[in-house]
Amino acid sequence: MNLELESLGDAEGALAVFDPATGSEIGRATTYSEDDVSSIITLADAAGQEWAQRTAKDRAAILSKWFALTKQHTEELARLVTAESGKPMAESRGEVAYGASFIEWFAEEGKRAYGETVPTFAAGKRVMTIKQPVGTCAAITPWNFPVAMITRKVAPALAAGCAIVVKPAEATPFSALALERLAHEAGVPRELFRVVPTTDPAELGTLFCTHPRIRKLSFTGSTAVGKTLMRQTSDNVLRLSLELGGNAPFIVFDDADLDAAVEGAMASKYRNAGQTCVCANRILVQDGVHDAFVEKLKTRVEALKIGAGCEEGTTLGPLINSAGRDKVARLVDQALSAGAKPVTGATTSDAGEGFYEATILTGVTSDMAIASEEIFGPVAPVIRFSTEDEAIRIANDTPYGLAAYFYARDVGRVFRVMEGLEYGMVAANDGILSTEVAPFGGIKQSGMGREGSSHGLDEYLELKYCLVGGI
Ligand SMILES: NC(=O)c1ccc[n+]([C@@H]2O[C@H](COP(=O)([O-])OP(=O)(O)OC[C@H]3O[C@@H](n4cnc5c(N)ncnc54)[C@H](O)[C@@H]3O)[C@@H](O)[C@H]2O)c1
Ligand SMILES: O=C[C@H](O)CS(=O)(=O)O
């Protein structure tokens, strides 16, 4: 199975793809017009009718082969992820394993789309429910996890009995095309799962929202685009899953294990150079441990190795593009102008155009833009607080509600803070919460619906109430 970039690309393709570390073009991808995709959706819908008639066990057997092939081709997939997203190879290998875990998980979950029988309300009648595939799905995915954000949607869709057409991010089409190739090799019918790169995401997004055969849209990306799609899906009342932006608080209380909190902050903040939706976006530290925590964090941050993702040993890669880097620089400069202090970093890097040094700022206040905007970069803004109630108030003072983290050892505090934080996902004494077995998703303007876990399958199923009378 050839998954080399050249075999996935098209020298005449309209979509140019670039290496974030150097800015150089690494390949070109074939793109699909609105008419092309409309026809692809119609073919997918027909393939979906047949796929839905197969047993969950038959679908599971094919998904299991896709899982095995994805694991077998980890190195090639990781090279593609690093080439087009820039993340360090070690993280890319981890992403492939994480992405594959959704295929493995939903191969099994698809067999558990259980209905129910309900004690009847009247003689001669029987009440039951069944779960059926929602129909043909569309998905739109971001660049920061070009493997995992695809499988986190495609695996449950296929397991539930649905066809799915995916538009990957313009920056990262090759990882998606490789996954498509592996799925077809595993036995997923060619028309059932298609990846359709484009240079006009808005045009394809509108088609996905308005095509008569599309019954469901699953979107992962920014809150701004999510709101656009929410409006566009209203005419056809599509089923909608939205995995949007975040502004994660990372709270360190006086009773925290400081060394554990530093490790958790490193894992949460600097993974993928801070370009994940669940990265710590604000670090709140209680007065009693503020200086000790900052000093310990500084030591670990300054040990990060900045460089191209393809260089073994790199632990901090480039940002996705110059716009991403400029946004980070703008937020840091604004914070410094407003009184924040640089502990380390706070500058672009001589490692190359797309790089920004790992940064810690202290003296940050909630009114600064860096505390309310999603940074999407390797910058830790530290906000000092005095009381537990103040920490929860600051943490909740955002339109976002995706992930939140805190470190404390008092059991009463753990329960009070866990219950008081207004987020879809809360981790106590850990900096990484993402796993296929748990429901991933946000509240407020971080989205709706859940991915992974047993809940993730329901996003691609309809619950039907069946009444049988005349008994
Ligand atoms: N909640 C999650 O699970 C999750 C996961 C990853 C990324 N994100 C969020 O995604 C953002 C970063 O990713 P990004 O820069 O790719 O986001 P983005 O919203 O700019 O793009 C996401 C996808 O939407 C497409 N798109 C852009 N404009 C569109 C339009 N008008 N209509 C239809 N599609 C359109 C893009 O081509 C891309 O495929 C961050 O906000 C991050 O928090 C969230
Ligand atoms: O960026 C968003 C991803 O969902 C992050 S994670 O890999 O799922 O934690």
UniProtKB/TrEMBL annotation:
Domain of life: Bacteria
Keyword Oxidoreductase recorded: yes
Protein's GO biological process: gamma-aminobutyric acid catabolic process
Domain Aldehyde dehydrogenase: 13-465
This protein's UniProt keywords: Oxidation, Oxidoreductase
Gene3D superfamilies: Aldehyde Dehydrogenase, Chain A, domain 1 (3.40.605.10), Aldehyde Dehydrogenase, Chain A, domain 2 (3.40.309.10)
Catalytic machinery residues: 243
PROSITE patterns tied to this protein: ALDEHYDE_DEHYDR_CYS (PS00070), ALDEHYDE_DEHYDR_GLU (PS00687)
InterPro entries, per database record: Ald_DH/histidinol_DH, Ald_DH_C, Ald_DH_CS_CYS, Ald_DH_CS_GLU, Ald_DH_N, Aldehyde_DH_dom, Aldehyde_DH_Superfamily
One matching Pfam family: Aldedh
GO molecular function: succinate-semialdehyde dehydrogenase (NAD+) activity
Protein family: Belongs to the aldehyde dehydrogenase family.
Protein's recorded name: Aldehyde dehydrogenase family protein
